[in-house]
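Hey all, sorry for the wall of text incoming. These are the two entities for the joint prediction.
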Amino acid sequence: MQPFLTLVRRELGSCYVSIIGYAIVAAVQFLLGLSFVIVLRALNGKPFDVPVTEAFFNNGLFWLTMLLAPPIITMRAYSLEKSSGTYETLMTAPVGDMQVVLAKFTGALLFFMSAWLPLLAYPFLLKRFSVDLAQVDTGAVGGTFVGIFLFGALYIALGCFASSLTRNQIVAAMNAFALGLGLFLLSYLTFILPPKAGWQSAVLSHISMIEHMRDFTRGIVDTRQVVFYVSLTTLFLFLTLKVVESRRWK
Amino acid sequence: MSAAPMIEVENLTKSYGGRAAVRDLTFTVKRGEIVGFLGQNGAGKTTTMRMLSCFMPATSGTARVAGFDVFTQADEVRRRIGYMPEGNPLHLDMRVREYLKFRARLKGLTPARSRERVDIVTAQCGLGDVAGKVIGTLSGGYRQRVGLADALVHEPELIILDEPTKNLDAHLTRTVRQLIKDVSKDRTVFISSHLLPEVELTCTRVIIIHEGSIRESGTLDELQRKMSAGQQVIAELAAPVPDLREAWEHMAEVEHFDISAAEGSFHRCALTPRAGLDLRPQIFELAKARGWPLRELTRTRHSLEDIFVHVTRREQEEP
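and here's what came out:
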């Protein structure tokens, strides 16, 4: 346990001392602030029937942030250590492969979540300055954060996997982005294909991340979706572990 | 367990895609020894060290450190070794003290113990002045000391250093070498190098590796004795050349000789003995009997460099 915590601390520390870490936080804040403003403009003076959280998360800037931040946070995880050689000092310390994989994942996920924290201020801003105090539902905000956490975990795990495959950070980021975008774009199949009664559309609706997030932002946390994210996250962590172990197969 | 040799390597082989980087390596390092692992670039030094430090497995053969198998008991082995890889990779964004503490904690030391050990190795490696500095801003010599401090921080029984003085200037090399000598007093050190003086000055025993297999191994004295077949005796005598020539021709033990003029009335004779004999007593007796003034009588000793060049050249000429 101790090496795990030491490594998590190191991972988090490396995010907070690097300029990249702050650039990510700044970019996330900028994009979210922008989408907040856009939502406010749209809602200004008009009555609306969806929760604010849903309106907020149903725009492109939110998804841009969600898709861009994890690859950039995780691109260094293994690539930098491999290219600088510190991977060798790490793997020759008395630390298990599993601990390394989980620590890198946990560190990146904690950093990712910390970048979203200022979001909690938005509901308070809304409450403070809007006439209608019932606009923001705590359940919806909670559900939204669960959604961000689950989605983030999956994309961070995917980013770790991409990073473990190469020693070039840029390649790692691009692979993670391409994989992540591909996974995300599957959501659009439900919009493109005409809904049929068959199993195909049932499957598609289950893997549609946009729909998942719509539920989360309404405050609905469906266990099926939780299982979907947790199992995919586990799958990518497992693959990362295998890549880390693969140096023993060569 | 303490009776087991520090390193036991048996028929260790590592191949990359069919090409053997290390072939059938067998050697033992006893506790308390400082062993130099000498070879040219690409001879298989780093590969061997990576296998010993459990970074990569062998294709075949076994290696044990302190009695533990490096593949099946990797955790036990890792706890007992301090490994400094080639090029001394460090986290350049961390401060020296922070890094050493991180490494100490990673290697399982308690917070109190790691503070204590970090203090000790910081002093030992002369890092007191730079303890609060970011590693990336340090000079090469200091970085090397940080790497060494990291290898020492958990009090390992065995220290494995891969090219510890690579890319350092002469002065720094000396500092680092002294440091290695200091820390090796109570532990085993296995050190690789392609630099001969390095090994000659720090190590008690040398293993010479060439193209993936061991060519020679032994203490410096042993290696020199092995090589003494080609040794020459130099004698400077004041005597007429024909007399000298006649004397050497009649001395059965001399296989080959060479006479050249030296300053004054002296002549410098380079004598190659048969079968590695030491000619010096005989020459002294001869000079005494004939009444020739003798001002120098030495046996040329092979430096490690000669041995190394000899060993590796012989191999290169074979195929």
